[in-house]
Every structure is written in structure tokens, then in C-alpha cells.
Amino acid sequence: MRDSPKTGSARAGIPEYDSVDVSVLVIGAGAAGARAAIELAERGVDDVLVLGKRSHGDAHTTWARGGINGALGTHDPEDSWAIHAADTLNEGHFLNDPGKVQTVTKRMPGLLRELDDWGMAFSRTEDGELDQRFFGAQSFRRTAFAGDHTGESMLNTLVDRAQELSVPYRENVMITTLLADGDRVYGAVGFDADTGDYLLINAGTVVLAAGGYAAIYNRHTSRDDENNGDGPALAYDAGAALMDMEFVQFHPTGMAVDEDDPEWEPWSGRLVTEAVRGEGGHLYNAEGERFMERYSPDQMELDARDVVARAIAQEVAEGRGTENGGVSLDLSHKSRSFIRERLPRMYERFDDLGVDMASEPVEVAPTAHYGMGGVAVDEHGETSVDGLFAIGETMAGVHGANRLGGNSLAETVAFGAVAGERIAQRVDGPGRLPDHVVDDYAKPQLRDLAALAGRDGTHEVSSVFTGLQNLLWEHAGILRDEDSLRAGLRELDTLRDRVSDLDVGPITSDSFEFAVDLGFMLTTAEAVLRGALQRTESRGAHYRTDYPDTDPDWRRNIYYERADVGGMSTHTETVGTPSETVQAALDEGHELDYHQLE
Fold first, then answer.
1. What is the CATH number of the domain that holds 322?
2. Is 456 in the same domain as 504?
3. Whether 120 contacts 146, CB under 8 Å
4. Is position 399 annotated as part of the catalytic site?
5. Catalytic hit among 141, 161, 277, 305
């Protein structure tokens, strides 16, 4: 990696910027980005730079608490990678890419053991094996975990391994555009949020591991400054296609709080891990009914996330919700020692807020949690733009119409390894950044960023930001219909006008960062609304009240691309078929028997 002296031209309105040359640029320092960088380093590729939007080790991965899937068979030796794949396809309502599903499920047992070898603090059985718990819609206990802080423990393990391998890293850097001409990628432009320096990075290969887009909703499990759609929007603007963007998973159990209480308000929508239900938690409405008996008498609280989320929404809509618009999640029938051992972070969080999980329930309600859609990629994670890869939550294909709990962390390490292997076979230095790319793409972006910093506009960034989140929740939430989706698209056009006239602080301010985020969010919001409008059926996390049935003819993926003359265009493609091994597992009809937990 080579840094060059600052360059720029104040006369041309182009600010000074630092130039960096690197063979592989990894955008995103969560689990997917870290695992890709580790794979590259282990294969002898040392000219790599990992960029983190936040400080080192502070990525959204840490909020994935419940566990990571892999068919180890610790408790259920009859489990297999093929049954894991079958569960994933069933949960995804068969819109998943079967090849990508097979890649993840076949690799995960080995990757779990690898994490164990690297020192991850997995919870263990009395025999010292990696313990595994039930998660919703899984046929067997295959979710390995570290208490209820699995993502945090996993990311710490990956960061430590990357540091052992001396992987270069920069923190608090935000990428605002990729340098691409539609055929291949050449690098990126961004800024350092600490110093205010602008950056131009020349890279032979770019890996997008920048997360998903759940934070375009006003109730979500992310922080407002992450999962704003950076990764998908950067790829889309570079000429890559997006896929499945209409499928947004609403986790059944986000925290339902009194938003007028300053102590509780910051926790609104934050995840109450599925592990609480996996360890035997019961859901009750305000009338004391264990209502999942009406919706899913066989699988109860551990049915698919979309089923449980819609059931809770229905209970609240029919007037059986709790004070803060949710339902009660109760684990008080378990012992205090059990809860503190199996769910330490959850116990501590609620205890700090004055709620004792061992003696009283907590209030929960659905919250936007995960985007199943993302960038369309091949079997190695590469997009249609040569040299541009997308992995982790930024990519599409593994989860289909609804994600199986425990598969998000699995996807990050599996495709981090897959992409790293592929890139290592092809890496050939930074390459030369063509003059036309600098003139046509880099300099205009640097000029626009300089003009945005300190802009004296009409609209407050925070107000427009919140307005966009409210728009998505109202018009493309758990329950959707044509009139509301069309109204959402009209309102989105109005918001675009406001985004063009923002009042923005200096480059190191939060308002500058959120103003950049708004650009990404507009792209992902439009894709969600357009896809939800086009898909005239209900499937998985996408539920149309005016088309409540699943239509077999809609077993197709929607792709989103930039039109030749402005705007967003879409087309559909049919889904592939599973391998014979996975189809055999599907035909066997494995299914969780919830009542063995009682």
C-alpha cells in the first residue's frame, strides 16, 4: 500500500486529497470484511486495506447476539449440511439461490471449528463440545453460540486474527462513491471523519462488506449511522444490479418502550435476541393469552420470523397489545441462574433498566432487522462489474424471501472466505487509475463533497432523515398494499427535493455523514418500494394485504438496475433448482417439534 502527497486544485473547486494505492480495498470492517481480509492474508496477499466506518471492532456484527448456524450435530447427530440447506430454502420460500445456500451450509461446520481454533469463546456442553441451541424454523439444534453475545465474540476473534496477520486497517473512514465505468471498478473516493481529509483510493479489486439497509426504517435494530444501504447503493451507482430488495425482515422481538422516557427511548426497536425464545421464552398478549397457539400451534414462538412478527402485529392491531404497542415476552418460568448463564447480556440490559427478566416479562414488538436483498453476485461474490465483490449483508441470494435465524453470521464468514479465495487467485496489484476515471468520476465527486460540507440550506438533515425512515415504516412495513406503496413513491420524490437543499455542517460533523447517508437511503428506499409494488403476492417477509396468497408464478427474483436514461429499471429471472442431495433433504420433510422443549 502506498500513500501519495496531497493533491487537488482549489481553482477548479477540487479540494486537496490524499491518494492511496492498494491491490485490494475492503469496505467494511465487520465479520464479512474481516474474514475476507484474513483469507487474503493467509494466502499471501499483503497489499490489502480494510476501511471501517467506525472505530476498530465497532461494527454491526456485534449486535448479532443469538448464534451462528452450522450442522455440527452436537446434540442432534442426525443433522447435516443438506438439512440445514433445506431449512434455509424453506424459510426463504424458495427464492434463495440454491448454490449460494449450499456454499454456506457445507462450509459452516469447518468454519465454526476454525473460529474455535482461533479462540472464540463459544458456550460448551458438559463434554466440552460446542453447544448448540434451537432457533426459529430450524429442524435441529444447530445454532452455536457464545452466551447471547455471539456476534461480539466472533468479531473480536476475527479482529484478533487479522491483527496477528498484520492486516492494514483504517478506522472512521466513509466511502461515498466507487470509481467505476460500468465495466470494471478502479477504486473509491471517501473521507476521514476524524481529520476531514478527502481520500482517493486506487484499487485493483474492491470488496463491499458494508452491511445492509434495515435502518431506512424508523424502528430498527441497528444504530442510525449504520445499515443505511451504503453497500447496495455504492454497487448500484457503480453499475451492478441489486436483487430481492423488497424483502426486509421484521424481527418479532425488538424492544417496545415508552419513547417519552429518556432512559428507555434510545432502546426503541433494539433487538431482544431470538435466543430468548430459543431458550423457552413465551409470548403473551395484554389479555394474558399465549397467542401463538392460534397462529402456529405446532411451532409456537419458534415459527419463522415473518410468521411470529405478523402474529404480534395482528394482536396489537386488534387491540390486544401492551401499553407500549407490543406484547409480553416471558422467561420467568426459568431459573435466575439459567437466564444469567444462557442470556447474560439480555439479563444485564434489562436489569440496568430496572426490569428483572427472572420475575417479570419484557415488552417486545416487531422491528426492521435485516435486508434479505442486496447486490447480485456470482458464486464467488463478484458482481457484474469486473473486480467488484459484495459479501455479507451487502450481497443477495442466500436468504430468499426470509432469513433463517443464525444464518447472517454464517453468511459473513462463509462468503468472506469464498471471496478471499477467489481474489487471491487473481490479484495483480493496484493497477493504473485511468485519467478518464479520475476526470469523469473522482474529481466531480470530490468537488460535490466539498460543496456539501458547510452548505447553508433550508432543511435540517435530521428532519429529512427521520422523515425518510417514517415513510418506509408507513408505506413499506410489515403489511403492504398498492395504494400505500404508490403513495410512498410519491412522497419519496418530495423527499428528494428536500435532500437537494439540506443545511449541512462541516465534513467532520454528524450532519455531513447523515447527508451522505441520505443519498444511499434514497436508492435503497426506492428499490424496496418499487419491488414491493411489483411483487403482487405475499411471500416470506413481503406481505401484501391486497394479494395475501403466494403465487407460484412469482417464484422469480426481481433485479434492479440503473436505466440507460436515468431512473431505476427492473426485470425478473427464475430461481435455480437445488442439488439432488438438498432436494432429498427437502423431500424428507424435517421440521422442528417445538413441544419437545416444553
1. 3.90.700.10
2. yes
3. yes
4. no
5. 277
